[in-house]
Amino acid sequence: MTIYLDNNATTALAPEVREAILPHLFGEFANPSSPHGPGMAARRAVGEARAQIAALIGAKPADLVMTGGATEATHTAILGALRTLEETEHTRSHIVTTAVEHPATLALFEDLRQQGWRVTILPVDADGVPSLAALGAVVTERTALVSMMWANNETGVLMPVAGASAIAHAHGALFHTDAVQAAGRVPVDCGIADYLTLSAHKMHGPKGIGALYVRKGAPFRPLIHGHQERRRRGGTENVPGIVGFGAAASLADLWMDENGLTVFLRDRLESGVLARWPGARVNGAGAARLPNTTNIRFSDAKGRPVDAEELLIRLDRAGIAVSMGAACSSGGNEPSHVLTAMGLTGAEAAASLRFSLSRYTTAAEVDAVLSELPALHARLVTA
Ligand code: PLP
Questions:
Q1: How confident is the model at residue 262 (pLDDT cuts 50, 70, 90)?
Q2: How far does residue 180's CA lie from ligand 1's centre (Å)?
Q3: Residue 328 confidence (pLDDT)
Q4: Residue 9 alpha carbon, nearest atom of ligand 1
Q5: Is the CB of 71 inside a 6 Å radius of any atom of ligand 1?
Q6: Which domains, ranges and CATH numbers included, belong to the chain?
Q7: pTM score, two decimals?
Q8: Is residue 181 within 6 Å of ligand 1 at its C-beta?
Q9: What is the CA radius of gyration of the chain?
């Protein structure tokens, strides 16, 4: 059995989620827009799931637009907001995000830059945290929107989203947050945001389903047209996906209630690695972080970065799945944009591995990982 410590890339479907989905794949397959009994049952199921997802972030069900994942939710929020503002407040031509966002946001900002928007990418400090003072210095009455993620997917570092939102709002700008990695792991309250992005597959739900919270009254334009989702996102609803997302959200809510933030075993793993690998350092150690994530930089006795890709491959051979930064960037040769933004050199970034735990990770699994390390250390450092 693989020891899976790559839960920031994606998570296993919870058994309860699977059970919730199955009837909607087979017997109860009707289209929620159909006027007959089975259609109405599908519509009810979608409504119940929407309420479960809304409860996780303190939203009203009507404030959620279901999407085909977080990438689409983020594009919908930002493009919709900016297109509306272009018509109503053309003086706002400036948008702000941070250097450590997910490519879902950064690539969109790059495209917006090419379309003529003035873009500020906020730097981060050595722990991966953007400075609110720096944000305050760049946001003006010409700023249309600020987008800052709630928690970073590579390091788990929590961002100062409440402060960032206050700065944006003080200047009449809109605030979007990508809460994909935070939701279901730490409490997330939509109250600070105009737009908030969620994804089911990071909380033991299915892939290809996400949600966008839109504050009542916030500017909005659909990205995909059609009558579904109250005309805010066209296309026949992904009923099994939405029902699975609802089940995953209510499980996550219950789980956070019962377990607080302590049962991820991250600290046991982190301190165990540091004890067994002299010179290893935690990236973002000085910041508040998600309780399930640790990003560790490995070096040899002289402090020279080791090749984390080799470490990853050797761990994989031992049945342990971890990652080098984001899943989407692995395979490429580019060093992590998150770690380099924190001031790591390319070699230091390439010496870093991300371990991300889930609520199903066990102490025995953590200990099994730790028991592999001395041999790996001997091989990679002294070889
Ligand atoms: N935002 C963050 C922080 C993520 O980690 C991910 C997933 O990789 C996404 C957005 C994209 O989510 P999705 O796969 O649902 O489009």
A1: low
A2: 6
A3: 43
A4: 8
A5: yes
A6: 3-10+258-382 (3.90.1150.10), 15-255 (3.40.640.10)
A7: 0.96
A8: yes
A9: 21
In the reported structure, the alpha carbon of residue 258 is separated from the centroid of ligand 1 by a whole-number distance in angstroms of 26
Q: Which amino acid makes up residue 315?
A: L
Instruction: Give the angle subtended at the CA of 351 by the CAs of 346 and 356, to the nearest 5°.
Output: 115
Rounded to 5°, angle at Cα 104 from 270 and 257: 50
Nearest CA, atom 8, ligand 1:
9
Q: If 0-12 CB within 10 Å is exposed, 13-18 middle and 19+ buried, where does residue 213 land? A: buried
Q: Is the pLDDT of residue 209 over 70?
A: yes
Which of the pair, 194 or 331, is modelled with greater confidence? 194
> Which of 59, 7, 82 shows the shortest CA–CA distance to 196?
59
Q: Which residue type is seen at 137? A: A
- Ligand 1 atom closest to 69 (CA): 15
Q: Measure 178 CA to ligand 1 centroid, in angstroms.
A: 8
Buried b / exposed e along 179-207 (16+ C-beta atoms within 10 A): bbbbbbbbebebebbbbbbbbbbbbbbbb
The per-residue pLDDT for range 305-355, each reduced to its tens digit, is 999 999 999 999 999 999 997 554 445 568 999 999 999 999 999 999 999
- The secondary structure of 205-254 as a DSSP string is S-SS-EEEEE-TTS----SS-SSHHHHTS-S---HHHHHHHHHHHHHHHH
